[in-house]
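Design a sequence for this backbone.
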């Protein structure tokens, strides 16, 4: 398996987060991390764990591949689908990212 260099990564967290009108603080709270962690992810200064990447992708209504796949391998599900669902998801920002739709406690 070929290792991906930092320059080959395609980090779209900021782009998708903004497209679905979510703040860094909202994303951080939903994912259970500090806002500074989201900032570091968006700057490509921090590679999230699989669990964190899944939580971020679920909250942004996209896939991990769409957020972090190397250049040329990312799907475009995040762009159009994320924006299309932004209106539907607007009322559910208080839900947990575990997929059960139950509010965080």
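Sequence:
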């Amino acid at each position: 398996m070929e290792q991906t260099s930092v320059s080959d990564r395609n980090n779209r967290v900021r782009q998708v987060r903004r497209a679905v009108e979510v703040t860094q603080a909202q994303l951080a709270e939903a994912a259970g991390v500090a806002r500074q962690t989201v900032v570091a992810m968006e700057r490509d200064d921090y590679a999230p764990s699989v669990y964190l990447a899944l939580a971020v992708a679920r909250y942004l209504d996209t896939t991990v591949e769409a957020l972090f796949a190397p250049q040329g391998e990312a799907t475009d599900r995040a762009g159009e689908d994320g924006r299309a669902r932004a209106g539907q998801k607007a009322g559910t920002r208080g839900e947990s990212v575990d997929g059960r739709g139950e509010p965080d406690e």
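Residues 8-82 form a domain with the 434 Repressor (Amino-terminal Domain) fold (CATH 1.10.260.40).
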